[in-house]
User: Which sequence fits this backbone?
């Protein structure tokens, strides 16, 4: 049976026809400890504005029975149950069973390898609630949901609305949750299992944290930080949106085999990969904070106010991504959050936005399958940067006033982009029509440079420039360092803009200083080499980050070599003072050596990164990050011996070192076995598989490919870790057969839902043992694939094509 994707036209017709009063969903999880089945009875009460009309309800589970107003209905076809001859007021009852809880969409049953305990989680974005129970699975048919869940007696159940009434049934317990507020189907959730639970009262909110029992110690370690961040975030958003979170209970549930995090109202679900088994690095702690604040921002942008259709997905995701950096900088100890954004996510967005997968932030979405393809670098980091520019453009106080008006006007309803633009235009006193068209409806990245003619300075856009406000910073040399002597804000309305107020004797002029907009920059030819040399000597993480971003963009467009980019970034690392960017820059430098450098200079660049890591390790605050970097770039026996001595009993570092030793051809079998016995991590088997993935051995490659790509045994949160160890430079002869196997797998890459589809498509795409004709074959093979696969493959193939061109260069 095929499963049809809901089209916009169908959704609009159904929304004009129906108003959903409520969902009463009865869920039976008692079969899950020993079997795969989730049994549901969904009762939907709704009105029809045209009695006698017909429509359909979505249900992609196995329908065991369905009645409309007491009359039996025909079987489901293509994931839909026809609803004929609707009355003015209707009650629909559907019994369904979902038995594909291992690899299917919507609901997942995970077994903890540490103790055999079973955990179940649900995740429904964009339209996967229909795989679990019958519903009108579109965002603008919001309704209260009442969940009643029967689960094994030892299990705890979590859902959106918090305090359940629990009834003891002997071997089971029934959890009756109060009605949720009006929610879209994709914002609802039920999670269950024998969770470890921690609760705390913070500023009038009852906060809960949950994890599987085998990770209780890690959850306890991180609980104080998470409760602090949750309290800070709730207070910040309540103030800037002029609307406190309206529910007392706010839970966060960490579950196995989950990808990322999901903003279910009042009950956020996380991958428990965020519970770091080793003590988190500064960058990992900051990432946890930003994800926590991102999902929390969705309580307002996505849950309380929801986009009407998926063309406005950016109203959810871009805003949450912007807000998490805004909140982190203003309300938490992560005051360099925007610098971290520039050093990592924004670089990926610049690359994506200049390739064949670029698209406008706001674009027409024909159906939900297409919507799944835009959870990407344009919607998230570019969107966040564009909203930061919008706040700069209208002014922060007016921006806040516009947001407060927007939430007050549209709470618990659905909106379009124009509703947001109207609220911000009214509050900001600016007509944003031109801004909207240029920034949200036009793809691509502006590029700026400066022209100097005597004392006059002109900001020049490479093409027509979007309306925006940005800054130009002037820097003067003081010894080896540079200090900022002026900062001039410039409003851009045309391709050439005079910049006044800069000191005539500035040694360096930095375009987009303070990183207020989304635009790449170029030095003029006379100062190109100066930029590469001075990047490390600029005075702030943002100013250094802007120089790195320029050098990176020049590498990706063939205007700089891997050697030049690598040397620049390692020089910045030696001088960097911000913990937010050390780890992203180490990752970037290592990636340039591995993926962008010609064979003739790869070893030299890798040695330079390894030497930088050894130097950074002398600083106690940088030691952990530096040793991890060395574990990726160790080049000889001396590096490995020094790393092992530094690692001591640190199991995480020993695993990392073992991966590198395996790649270099070491005999790692016995040490792998010993580490596996010592490691308390319930998912340590993945670390052992990662070691085997790196081995230059045909049998090991075959075994790992089977488990990773065919059997899909690796948790979605670990796909990248294992795949990166599998695809190593210098192993082309071993890897060549798997390039063909990737092509053969493309028709199946969509299976399991949006997150696995994106992960497998991107991470299994071969960065080595391929050439340009192969990339063209991959693109052709994806033409008939699901939109999310096609889009992800197009984006990744463009990046690898750029890498191939860089590797083919002189490398000087």
Assistant:
């Amino acid at each position: 049976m095929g499963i049809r994707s809901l089209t916009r036209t169908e959704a609009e017709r159904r929304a004009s026809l129906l108003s959903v009063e409520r969902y009463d969903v009865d869920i039976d999880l008692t079969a899950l400890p020993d079997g795969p089945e989730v049994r549901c009875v969904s009762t939907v009460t709704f009105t029809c504005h045209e009695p006698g009309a017909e429509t359909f309800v979505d249900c992609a589970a196995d329908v065991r029975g369905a009645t409309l107003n007491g009359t039996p209905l025909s079987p489901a076809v293509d994931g839909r149950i026809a609803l004929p001859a609707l009355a003015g007021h209707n009650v629909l009852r559907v019994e369904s069973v979902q038995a594909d809880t291992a690899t299917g969409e919507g609901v997942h049953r995970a077994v903890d390898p540490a103790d055999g305990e079973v955990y179940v989680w649900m995740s429904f974005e964009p339209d996967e609630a229909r795989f679990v129970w019958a519903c009108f699975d579109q965002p603008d048919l919001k309704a209260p949901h009442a969940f009643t869940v029967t689960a094994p007696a030892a299990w705890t159940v979590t859902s959106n609305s918090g305090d359940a009434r629990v009834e003891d049934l002997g071997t089971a317990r029934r959890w009756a949750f109060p009605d949720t507020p009006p929610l879209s189907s994709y914002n609802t959730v039920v999670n269950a299992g024998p969770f470890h639970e921690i609760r705390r009262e913070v500023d009038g909110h009852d906060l809960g944290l949950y994890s599987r029992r085998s990770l209780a110690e890690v959850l306890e370690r991180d609980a104080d930080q998470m409760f602090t961040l949750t309290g800070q975030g709730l207070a910040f958003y309540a103030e800037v949106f002029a609307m406190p979170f309206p529910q007392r209970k706010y839970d966060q549930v960490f579950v196995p085999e989950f990808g990322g995090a999901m903003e279910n109202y009042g009950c956020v679900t996380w991958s428990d990969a965020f519970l770091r088994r080793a003590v988190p690095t500064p960058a990992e702690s900051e990432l946890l904070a930003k994800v926590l604040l991102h999902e929390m921002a969705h309580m307002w942008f996505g849950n309380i106010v929801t986009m009407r259709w998926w063309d406005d997905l950016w109203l959810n995701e871009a805003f949450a991504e912007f807000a998490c950096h805004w909140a982190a900088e203003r309300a938490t100890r992560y005051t360099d959050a925007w610098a971290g954004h520039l050093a990592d996510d924004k670089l990926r967005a610049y690359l994506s936005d200049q390739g064949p997968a670029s698209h406008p932030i706001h674009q027409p979405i024909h159906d939900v399958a297409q919507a799944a393809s835009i959870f990407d670098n344009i919607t998230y980091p570019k969107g966040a940067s564009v909203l930061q520019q919008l706040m700069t453009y209208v002014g922060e106080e007016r921006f806040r006033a516009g947001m407060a008006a927007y939430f007050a006007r549209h709470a618990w309803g659905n909106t379009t982009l124009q509703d947001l633009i109207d609220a911000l235009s009214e509050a900001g006193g600016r007509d944003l029509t031109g801004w909207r068209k240029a920034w949200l409806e036009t793809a691509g990245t502006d590029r700026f440079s400066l022209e100097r003619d005597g004392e006059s300075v002109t900001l020049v856009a490479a093409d027509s420039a979007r309306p925006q406000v940005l800054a130009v910073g002037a820097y003067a040399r003081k010894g080896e360092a540079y200090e900022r002597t002026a900062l001039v804000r410039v409003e851009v309305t045309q391709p050439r803009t005079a910049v006044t107020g800069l000191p005539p004797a500035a040694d360096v002029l930095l375009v987009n200083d303070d990183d207020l907009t989304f635009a790449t920059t170029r030095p003029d030819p006379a100062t190109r080499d100066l930029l590469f040399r001075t990047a490390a000597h600029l005075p702030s993480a943002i100013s250094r980050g802007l120089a790195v971003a320029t050098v990176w963009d020049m590498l990706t467009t063939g205007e700089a070599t891997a050697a030049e980019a690598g040397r620049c970034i390692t020089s910045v690392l030696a001088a960097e003072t911000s913990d937010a960017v050390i780890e992203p820059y180490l990752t970037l430098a290592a990636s340039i050596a591995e993926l962008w450098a010609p064979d003739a200079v790869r070893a030299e660049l890798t040695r330079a990164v390894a030497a930088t890591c050894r130097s950074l390790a002398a600083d106690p605050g940088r030691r952990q990050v530096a040793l991890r970097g060395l574990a990726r770039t160790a080049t000889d026996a001396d590096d490995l011996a020094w790393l092992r001595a530094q690692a001591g009993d640190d199991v995480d570092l020993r695993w990392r070192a073992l991966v590198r030793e395996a790649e270099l051809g070491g005999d790692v079998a016995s040490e792998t076995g010993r580490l596996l016995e010592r490691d308390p991590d319930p998912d340590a088997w993945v670390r052992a598989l990662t070691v085997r993935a790196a081995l230059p051995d045909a049998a090991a490659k075959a075994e790992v490919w089977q488990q990773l790509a065919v059997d899909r045994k690796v948790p979605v949160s670990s796909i990248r870790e294992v795949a990166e160890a599998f695809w190593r430079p210098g192993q082309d002869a071993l890897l060549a057969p798997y390039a063909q196997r990737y092509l053969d797998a493309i028709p199946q890459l969509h299976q399991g839902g949006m997150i696995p589809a994106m992960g497998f498509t991107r991470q299994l795409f071969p960065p080595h043992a391929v050439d340009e004709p192969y990339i063209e074959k991959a693109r052709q093979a994806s033409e008939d694939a699901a939109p999310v696969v096609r889009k992800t493959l197009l984006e990744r193939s463009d990046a690898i094509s750029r890498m191939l061109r860089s590797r083919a260069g002189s490398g000087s």
